Amino acid sequence: MTNSETKATLSFSDGSPSLEMPIYKGSIGPDVIDIRKLYGSTGMFTYDPGFMSTAACNSSITYIDGDKGELLYRGYPIEQLAVNGGDFLETCYLLLNGELPNAAEKANFVSTVTRHTMVHEQMQFFFRGFRRDAHPMSVLVGTVGALASFYHDSLDINDERHREVSAIRLIAKMPTLVAMAYKYSIGQPFVYPRNDLSYSANFMHMMFSTPCEEYKVNEVLVRALDRILILHADHEQNASTSTVRLAGSSGANPFACIAAGIACLWGPAHGGANEAALSMLEEIGSVDNIPEFIAQVKDKNSGVKLMGFGHRVYKNYDPRAKLMRETCYEVLNELGLQDDPLFKLAMELERIALEDEYFVSRKLYPNVDFYSGIVQRALGIPTALFTGIFALARTVGWISQWKEMISDPEQKIGRPRQLFVGSPRRDVPAMDKR
Ligand code: SDX
After folding, report:
1. C-alpha–C-alpha distance, residues 317 and 306, integer Å
2. What tens digit of pLDDT does each residue of 399-431 get?
3. Of all protein residues, whose CA lies closest to atom 16 belonging to ligand 1?
4. Which tens digits make up the pLDDT trace of 335-373?
């Protein structure tokens, strides 16, 4: 972050003294105006609901160019990492440490993560408190938060070693907890992780194997899942990452912070959109119904949105959506489902929307959630678990951002202010005067 030559000057039409504020330049992307002295100098706050024009931190992890539709993890384009790069754990190492691992570093990292995939044997008893049909995200919020009660040896956030160990534990145990949530929901026994399988193969094994027969890993499907995880790994200061940072700014332990991130991701406007997008496609049912559905979306009173479309930052095609659509092809072809009606419906819906002025004028394009439900469904993942998979993948992004925040000398507890529009001071009237 460097000071730019130019400064921002805030002047007031009522003749109040103007205020000069420094402008900082990043390595790429928009500059920022440092407004930290604004309240002290003017007694006024900025007003920015939804943080449309607010940078809450400086970061070197993920960069998005919304106009170009570009996504970089530590400078590397998502297309290279997801298609001809290494696997998800290689991306995890990159996000956590800032550089891609060499062969020895990767082998050590994989071995460390692999040996942390089991959860404490008592964790299974938390599941019994949930109804079998509990939404997996409610189970994950509860069980991930409960991890804090087992790891008192790594809760000192000011100890770098504790931060490292907690990061590894969370990355390693999320697949185990997500798979346990699934097994619990279908009444099958939990499956322990296996150290001889890769991260994504291990997850598929914990999800779909049973004690009754040998589970055969399909490498094409494993590679597809691995790519899905890479595509969801991090995404700058999105709502759930900002939640993790805000929770972490109070000094809360990393397990509590990630549980808070999971809770935020659950919302249909955020990570819950993949589940909502698939339900939307099933509700539309056939290509013939698309025009009527599009008309509903355009009718503001309907409250209907085209789920999996639109984005706060991308005003162009979400690069992850393109890669997700390619993954759809691969998986459906591998499974002989080339004619999957839902995939054809999704592509026709995308084609129609991208030719429609309503969507074009609002720069609404497919986002990561539009196709992810179709490919996850083809992998055998139930719709209710789609956002759990998103949380599994995003855990590395959350914990990387949390680590960056904790070690940022500028970080303080996050405490936004408000524009108060309620009642001025008044006295409490006696009951007979109300
Ligand atoms: C994720 O932030 C991230 O990076 C998130 C994420 C990540 O990796 O962490 O990328 C993951 O959350 C992707 C987004 C998933 N959500 C959805 O697909 C839900 C549907 N999308 C919308 O809810 C919406 O697009 C948001 C929430 C994603 C973005 O909303 P904004 O930036 O606040 O934009 P907006 O709601 O102000 O919309 C601008 C206009 C409005 O119309 P007008 O008032 O100008 O007439 O576009 C319309 C909106 O009504 N609009 C949509 C729409 N999205 C926006 N209209 C129909 N369908 C949609 N999907």
Report:
1. 15
2. 999 999 999 998 899 999 999 999 999 999 999
3. 269
4. 999 888 999 999 999 999 999 999 999 999 999 899 999
Average of per-residue pLDDT across 302-328: 93
- Count, residues in the chain: 434
Nearest to 245 by CA among 408, 367, 46: 408
What is the distance between the alpha carbons of residues 204 and 210, in angstroms, rounded to a whole number? 11
Helix axes 254-265, 160-186, angle to 10 degrees: 50
Q: How far apart are the first and last CA of the chain?
A: 57
Residue of 312, 313, 349, 368 with the most ligand 1 atoms within 8 Å of its CB, for mutation: 312
Residue minimizing CA distance to atom 13 of ligand 1: 270
369 is catalytic: yes
∠ CA 199-376-293, nearest 5°, is 155
- Asked about 311 being catalytic, the answer comes back as yes
Rounded to two decimals, the pTM is 0.95
Q: Is 272 in the pocket of ligand 1 (CB under 6 A)?
A: no
* Nearest atom, ligand 1, residue 50 CA: 33
